[in-house]
Specification:
By secondary structure, the chain is mainly alpha-helical. The chain has 6 helices and no strands. The longest helix has 48 residues.
């Protein structure tokens, strides 16, 4: 107990910074590993289902079975709308952070303003992507809608 009380505050503050960096860097690694394991598990389950169907020889065509097991792909319109959603969310959050920073700058440091500018830039980039993509892919979206309706 006496050892903890004798720690120089300079080293203690750097120790907490080091712990914060280690925790912040380990979170993306854990997320990546878990998502990789999930994808491998899904692939193995799909392979087991296909093998079981082929062993039973139920008269199904393997290509049809594989296509029925795959997740349906999002349409171009759905993907563009998700960019619009993320653009609006990031823009509103960025503006909120910037306004909060300028309303009471004494309560928060420069980090909140910088984070707000970064979120605002990301939101504007998503919005630009949406509007340019909507104009560029208009014919493809219409053809895809006609194909799905028929």
């Amino acid at each position: 107990m006496s050892i903890l009380l004798n720690i120089d505050p300079y080293w203690f503050s750097h120790l907490t910074d080091l712990i914060a960096v280690v925790v912040a860097l380990s979170i993306p690694i854990v997320i990546a590993v878990l998502s990789y394991r999930r994808r491998v598990n899904e692939t193995n389950k799909r392979a087991q289902v296909i093998m079981a169907a082929l062993e039973k020889d139920s008269g199904t065509v393997p290509e049809e079975l594989i296509n029925s097991l795959n997740k349906p792909k999002k349409s171009l319109k759905e993907r563009l709308l998700s960019k619009l959603l993320w653009g609006l969310v990031c823009t509103i959050l960025g503006l909120g952070f910037i306004i909060r920073h300028y309303v009471s700058p004494a309560d928060c440091g420069n980090e909140l303003g910088i984070g707000g500018v970064a979120l605002l830039a990301l939101g504007v980039a998503f919005l630009i992507y949406y509007f340019v993509g909507r104009r560029t892919l208009k014919k493809e979206i219409e053809a895809e809608e006609k194909e799905n309706n028929v």
